[in-house]
Design goal:
- This protein is mostly beta strands and 766 residues long.
- It has a domain at 108-265: Pectate Lyase C-like (3 Solenoid).
- It has 2 helices and 50 strands.
- The strands form 3 sheets. It has a 46-stranded parallel sheet that branches.
- Strand 5, helix 2 (148-154) and strand 6 form a beta-alpha-beta unit.
Length: 766
């Protein structure tokens, strides 16, 4: 062969060989009595019932809006439920709050009666207190006490202390079973000179109603088995409302609680501890320090409905800012809005909860960077239904060391990273979580992230637009022995990767679409569809299309088990040698059954560095090439790697249809190689590479049985530094049928200008 081989090209014969071609070709014409050539081997098409429609049919999130919540269209195109009117949530002051599903600010209590006293009081058992009484009084309606202390000294179990409109000063230390009732929250105000550890109102088995407790250096209301209705607690210290046993809250505002004056203590809105039930309806907690509502078991039950948590404050150390903190608590949270929390909007540990119709937005960061939605820790059994997490930071749903988390009918949209982590829709760490009927939209990070032995079950999940801010951006991540099982999953328009399984993790997907994963030009893993790194990936009924680089990539002793799958239409790669349909590297193994690779850039299926692949019914077609001077081989084994299989079709590869290099090995039965074309750069940077061959051994054996090699650009089968063995097949329609160390057994040679020539065909290092 002549010298001066074009880069990555196949050498053209020298002039003396061309003369020989004309002579030999005359002897290689098909005689009239030659039997017709056998048909090409049949290759089964991938069995993907939904492929014609473009994607599997996903059940969308199903939001049935609570009474007076508005149905609106989210960015993902599905309907979600907005708790506020079209004009938005109103900022309210004093005794007013804007409840979910209402038009605007309303008072927590009825308007004051013209008499200035509470109404609906019994005829007996009532002690009256008026802050402007003319004298000490006797406690009757006509002669009320001037001081609250006088009433608390007299009231006994079952009796009521009634407060007139006005500003009262003093602590109300109620005897067991005594209730405190004001005329109305807007005009009945109570404060006290008190110290940390005290409370403005303290009682047991008591009802507190129709007043505002405000501006005190101690807890607002404290007791055992309390009912608090139509009450405002504002600008107190330590805790707004603190209770043991049962606590009923109805039409209650707790606003502006702070830690003690020496910055010790939590500054929580509501604290309930020990056995008992917390029942809260129309609870508004706002601008409280560290936590809005904290409930601590054991044997603690809660029911929270139609409530709002707004603008939590951090501790003096810059920590917490949680909406709800629930520890060893069972119960329900329904129709509740969290806005402007930090750390976690709802944090639960060791409990069983049902969370329904929840809106979380505008989360902010703690001093150490936490800003999440719903966090479940250690053994928590939680069901989340109809969650809208939007315009926020951090992780929407995070389950850690928990085996019973189910989130369904979930929309997460427009999420930015926090200081601690990428933005995520679902994060599972050392436990199990299920995400069902979910849209994860415009998340600047990794929409699903599973780690530390965690397991995630995904059903009817659509992921769109990860990595908006230029972050890493992977649709689904399983790392550090994480496991993901996905059925009906779509990942599209992300950054860098659709799916990543790394560090002994597993991904098992059925009915999966991964499309349009553009590369991050800063480098990294660069626009792949699926990457396995030291892990196991199983795919069935899968479509990977329009990635900017490799469709499926196996690295570091990974295993890919792929069936009924199409990889097609890869985009122009960022780096040289990107653009393979499937690439196996560094001791990895692929099992491919009914797989089609179409319209890739640099090649079809390539194995490297001791990797292996087993093929059954695999088709590679229409390799596009990238124009950079690299090839576009259909099937290649390189670097002590091995490919075996049956029923394989390669049509329209670039440069070489089937190729070995550097001690690679390929053994196939039932194979067709046709219409191999020159490299794409022939029209730009490599004009001399206007050649192509069907099969080339560049450094390892190739064995083909029951084959057809037809109409490839220069030659059917050539030898560089290995041997090609062809048995029981057809070689047809080439300038050179075979060249070099090619062994033929029961092979028909038809319409080749030269049946065979001595010597090898040289290729460059590529």
């Amino acid at each position: 062969m002549h010298s001066g081989i074009p880069r990555d090209g196949i050498a053209l014969p020298p002039p003396w060989v061309l003369g020989f071609v004309f002579v030999v070709s005359a002897c290689n014409k098909k005689p009239d009595d030659t039997p017709p050539p056998p048909p090409p081997p049949a290759v089964a098409s991938p069995q993907i019932p939904w492929l014609d429609q473009g994607e599997p049919e996903l059940a969308p999130p199903a939001f049935v809006c609570a009474k007076d919540w508005r149905a609106v269209d989210a960015a993902s195109g599905v309907t979600v439920c907005d708790p506020w009117p079209a004009s938005g949530r109103q900022d309210c002051e004093g005794d007013e709050a804007h409840w979910p599903g209402t038009d605007g600010c309303v008072s927590v209590s009825e308007a004051c009666d013209p008499s200035g006293w509470p109404t609906d009081l019994p005829a007996t058992g009532v002690w009256y207190v008026h802050p402007d009484a003319e004298g000490p009084g006797s406690g009757t309606l006509d002669d009320p006490f001037l001081s609250l202390a006088a009433a608390t000294d007299m009231a006994t179990k079952g009796q009521i202390i009634a407060l007139a409109m006005g500003s009262h000063v003093g602590q109300a230390e109620l005897a067991d079973g005594v209730s405190l009732v004001g005329a109305c929250a807007s005009a009945t105000r109570l404060t006290a000179e008190c110290s940390p550890g005290d409370a403005v109102v303290q009682g047991a088995d008591s009802t507190i109603r129709g007043l505002t407790v405000h501006d005190a250096a101690c807890t607002g209301i404290r007791g055992i088995d309390l009912a608090v209705r139509s009450v405002v607690v504002q600008a107190v210290r330590s805790n707004g409302i603190e209770a043991e046993g049962n606590l009923v809250l109805d039409q209650v505002i707790v606003r502006g609680t702070r830690s003690d004056e020496d910055d010790e203590g939590p500054g929580q809105g509501v604290l309930v501890q020990g056995p008992g039930a917390l029942t809260a309806q129309h609870l508004h907690v706002q601008d409280n320090q560290t936590t809005g509502v904290r409930a601590i078991g054991p044997a603690r039950l809660i029911l929270v409905e139609d409530s709002v948590v707004l603008d939590m404050e951090l501790s003096p150390e810059g920590l917490l800012g949680r909406g709800f903190h629930l520890s060893d608590v069972d119960g329900d949270v329904r129709r509740t809005v969290f806005e402007g929390t930090a750390d976690s909007a709802l944090f639960t540990v060791d409990g069983t909860l049902t969370i329904e119709d929840v809106d979380i937005s505008r989360t902010t960061e703690t001093g150490d960077g936490w800003a999440d939605g719903i966090t479940m820790i250690r053994g928590t059994d939680v069901t989340i239904s109809r969650l809208w997490y939007h315009d926020a930071k951090g992780v929407a749903v995070w389950t850690q060391d928990s085996d019973g988390t189910v989130a369904e009918d979930v929309v997460v949209q427009t999420i930015a990273p926090s200081g601690q982590a990428q933005a995520r829709g679902l994060m599972v760490s050392n436990g199990e979580g299920t995400l069902r009927r979910a849209h994860l939209w415009n998340i600047d990070g990794d929409p699903v992230y599973v780690t530390l032995g965690g397991r995630a079950l995904l059903e009817d999940v659509q992921i769109h637009g990860s990595g908006l801010g230029g972050g890493f951006g992977v649709g689904v991540v399983a790392v550090e022995e994480g496991s993901v099982v996905a059925g009906r999953l779509i990942v599209e328009d992300g950054l860098q990767l659709g799916v990543l399984a790394s560090e002994l993790s597993e991904f098992d997907g059925v009915d999966v679409v991964i499309r349009r994963t553009p590369a991050d030009t800063s480098g990294g893993l660069n626009g792949r569809g699926v990457v396995a790194e030291g892990s196991l990936v199983t795919l069935s009924r899968t479509l990977v299309e329009q990635s900017a680089s490799t469709g499926l990539l196996g690295l570091a002793a990974s295993e890919l088990r792929v069936s009924d799958t199409v990889v097609r239409d890869l985009d122009v790669p960022v780096e040289d040698r990107d653009g393979e349909g499937i690439s196996m590297n560094r001791d990895s193994h692929a099992t491919l059954e009914r797989v089609a690779i179409q319209g890739t850039r640099w090649g079809g299926l390539h194995t490297y560095q001791r990797s292996t692949a087993e093929l059954t019914d695999v088709s590679i077609s229409d390799v596009q090439g990238d124009g950079s001077g690299f090839a576009g081989d259909g099937l290649m084994a390189w670097g002590n790697s091995r490919i075996t299989g049956e029923r394989v079709q390669i049509v329209g590869a670039r440069h070489v249809g089937i190729r070995t290099a550097d001690d690679g090995e390929i053994t196939l039965t039932g194979v067709q190689v046709a219409q191999t074309r020159p490299m794409a750069c022939v029209d730009s940077t490599c004009p001399d590479n206007d050649d192509a061959v069907g099969v080339h051994s560049g450094g390892g054996p190739i064995d083909l049985t029951d084959f057809s090699i037809v109409d490839n650009g220069l030659g059917a089968a050539t030898h560089g530094a290995g041997q090609v063995r062809l048995s029981q097949g057809l070689v047809q329609g080439h300038p050179v049928g075979t060249a070099g160390n090619v062994v033929l057994t029961d092979v028909t040679l038809l319409d080749n200008d030269v049946a065979s020539e001595d010597g090898g065909v040289e290729l460059s290092e590529y």
